[in-house]
Amino acid sequence: MKTYVLQLDYLKSLFIILMILFHLVYIGDTYPYMKQVVYTFHMPVFLILSGYLSQTEKTVKSFISSTWWLFIPYAFMEVGYVIAASFIPVREYIGELSLTNVIKRVFLDPVGPYWYLHTLLLCRIFHYTVAKVTASKFVPLSFLIVLGLCYWLFSEGLSLMRFSDAMFFLIGVGIRRCGLDILHVCQPSLWSFIPLVILCYYPNNLLRFNLAGVIITYLVISLSLWLYLRLPEKIKQGCHLIGKNTLVMLLFSPLFTMLSRIYLPVFMFDKSGVCFALFTIVLTLIGCLTIAWGMDRVHISRWMFGRERILQI
Predict the structure, then answer these.
(1) Is the pLDDT higher at 86 or at 104?
(2) Which of 195, 167, 172, 164 is nearest to 12 (CA)?
(3) What is the pLDDT of residues 177-187, one digit of tens each?
(4) Of 63, 84, 128, 161, which is most buried with the most CB atoms under 10 A?
(5) What sign for the dihedral angle of Cα 113, 234, 279, 309?
(6) Is 45 exposed, middle or buried (0-12, 13-18, 19+ CB in 10 A)?
(7) What are the distances in angstroms from CA 151 to CA 11, 165, 206, 212?
(8) Residue ranges with strand state E in 180-273
(9) How many of the other CB atoms lie within 10 Å of CB of 229?
(10) Closest Cα partner for 186 from 228, 232, 245?
(11) Alpha-carbon gap, residue 61 to 231, rounded angstroms
């Protein structure tokens, strides 16, 4: 992209906060329908943005390097999650703590929130490979069809990822490949609220990749961009900071959502969970930024992320 789009940082900040919120077991159990609504669109938005921002102009060496330094923190945290989940009860089935199971989780079937990074890695690799192999032979529609078939093969055929998730990434790729501005495609509008409420009222619409789910995702982006235009500048700046650092939020937030189980009883005076949620979200955001800052200060970032600074300011 020729210019840096601050609205994309805002969108990422909004949906990473929603991810943290509904990874809190108490909140998910207290508001199951709201969780179902949020799960319909929050990760699809990330995948669309990831596809839109995915670059194929890099040299092979540069692409391999960037992919490697995304895989390293993903693998490290996925292994840590599998080990921790062997001692701390989680709702997902982890299986026995063995080298074979750990390798399986990292490469084939990740657990916890890190499935997104696994899907992102695969989608980026296939996107880059198809772009380099086909070069300029295909018009955008033909390119998207070929890439979509690759995603179908590796999702439905080999079960390496969910096809619906890959399709949202493909939507982002398609917007960019057709030379469109995502902010023009997703126009900010308060009127998005009305059809959004109507669609979310019916549970059958709350599926990630049926037509209603795609429309819900679009409407949420449109409504969120409308809200952005009306936010105070200070709040915008805070959103931009969070949005620039969504990788560290995704990587380290499970540390704090697991920790929240310890102090949850302190907040049981508020059965709504609002106080607990607000405290945990603030703690998680500050904690993740602090971890990133600490890693930069002691020069761990170069070994885990391949660069001197991971904290983006």
Answers:
(1) 104
(2) 172
(3) 999 999 999 99
(4) 161
(5) positive
(6) buried
(7) 25, 10, 23, 22
(8) none
(9) 10
(10) 228
(11) 41
